[in-house]
Amino acid sequence: MLAEKTNPAPPPDWQTLCEPVQPFLDEVTGRLQSAVEAFDPEIATFVQYALASQGKQLRPLLVALSGRAAGGLNAHHVQAAVIIEMVHLATRVHDDVVDGAEVRRRRPTLAANWGNKVSVLAGDCLFAEALKLAATMPSNDVCLLVSQATKVVCSGEIRQTLQRGNFQLGRAEYFELVGMKTAALFALACELGAYLTNEDDQATQRTLREYGKLLGIAFQIYGDCLDVFGTEDKAGKSLGTDLATGKATLPMLLALEQANEIERKSWLAMLQAGESQADAVRERLIAEGIPAACRVVVADFVAQAISTVEDLPRASE
Fold it and tell me: Do 275 and 243 touch, CB atoms closer than 8 A?
């Protein structure tokens, strides 16, 4: 007799996921606000504007959950989460300049309001403040890890910018570039969460770092797909910048992988036309089932991430 099929339990909503560490996240928010107020008043206006579109605090959440998974939280975890969130905000301000994005969190980007020069310099101020805070941590290793991750993120963005218009990019190289962007800060958040709980437990640090990296790759791929297939009214930010600027991301790479020689030439002609063919490219990608193929890739990275932490002890409630 065949066993009855049961529907899997729905994933928890965001509030439920954050509930165990909500006081931690609230403290991070307060510390970020205090850090902004420490800037010169003229500069604080721009930094506050960037902070106001902070989002869901994914990276602080990863710091907290990783610290719990490694054995518990302490005051240093809050500082680490503030540092990583500042680095993230800085990279996001710079990304909006590079991508020419005009909307973020349903309002104009810093660059759209005050121009690229102010935005770049405001991002630099956030980077500098993050490294200053990292230097106050009890171990120099924290400052080193933050600096290394920041360098990786910036290097990944430079490499991807240099690859614009190159649709010969292989899937492996794309994953490598993705792993140097969002994934680098996700990995840092998870590694520091474990390190600040028990700096001698290197095995747990490596495990959680790998988890963060894989989860970050999945998250960045999802973001790349959203840029192609999403709608700005739902996403609340500028979309379509990858197609407009010739950035090769997973949807285009998958389409080219499955194309024959004639189809490939047709795809390349459309992609190299940039913004003028963006709508036609999007419609053709959807018609050829590329969104479903992208979901499979994202799900695979999420599954890999989960498998890396299956043997870790569960955090106490």
Answer: yes
Torsions phi, psi for 288 (to 5 deg): -95, 10
From first to last of its 317 residues, the chain has per-residue pLDDT tens of 344 445 556 667 778 888 889 999 999 999 998 888 888 888 888 888 888 766 789 999 999 999 999 999 998 999 999 999 999 999 988 888 887 778 777 788 888 889 899 999 988 999 999 999 999 998 889 999 999 999 999 998 888 888 888 888 888 999 999 999 889 999 999 999 999 999 999 999 999 999 999 999 999 999 999 989 987 666 555 567 788 878 889 999 999 999 999 999 999 998 888 777 888 889 999 999 999 999 999 999 999 999 999 888 765 44
Model's pTM, two decimal places?
A: 0.88
How many angstroms separate the Cα of 223 from the Cα of each of 22, 58, 217, 235, 242?
25, 14, 10, 10, 11
Q: Going by C-beta distance under 8 Å and a sequence separation of 6 or more, which residues neighbour residue 235? A: 226
